[in-house]
Amino acid sequence: MGTLLDYHNRVRSQVFPPAANMEYMIWDERLAKSAEAWAAQCVWDHGPPQLMRYMGQNLSIHSGRYRSIIELVKSWHDEKQYYSFPNKCSGSVCTHYTQMVWANTNRMGCAVNTCSNMNVWGSSWRRAVFLVCNYSIK
Predict the structure, then answer these.
(1) Of which family is this protein a member (predicted)?
(2) How far apart are CA 15 and CA 6, in angstroms?
(3) Which end of the chain is more exposed for a tag (fewer CB within 10 A), N or C?
């Protein structure tokens, strides 16, 4: 998971305009454990609800041909094209990207789980690779 942490810090270092108060992201084992518990549920939704008030969360899912862990989060970074600080998203979603680069977010923990059968947008996905990343501030 160190690769994910490095990727996030690289993405954060490339924001434009540069953030004056950008925190360095560190790994948080408690966030990773909560991500692991949620990923094990194999539910394509944010959660658990009682923790969502205290943290942010990005989800990624894939089924089929192998993809690296970085390929699973690259789509979050690609949302950058829809965001221009300080404006809101234009067009498509950019909240995964803003979660990655929010200046005062400095802790993350992720987990990945392979779900044998998972309901995703009304379809059943077999052997779905489900990635959950949780984020928090100091």
Answers:
(1) Belongs to the CRISP family.
(2) 15
(3) C
Tell me the two tokens of residue 101: 């680069």
Three-state DSSP class for residue 1: coil
Domains of the chain (ranges, CATH numbers): 3-136 (3.40.33.10)
Residue 3 tokens read as: 């690769």
CA dihedral angle for residue 123, residue 78, residue 35, residue 28, rounded to 10 degrees: 180
Separation CA 112–CA 62 (nearest Å) = 11
pTM of the prediction? 0.91
Counting every residue written for the chain, the total comes to 138
**pLDDT tens digits, residue range 94-113?**
889 999 999 999 999 999 99
CB atoms within 10 A of CB 41: 15
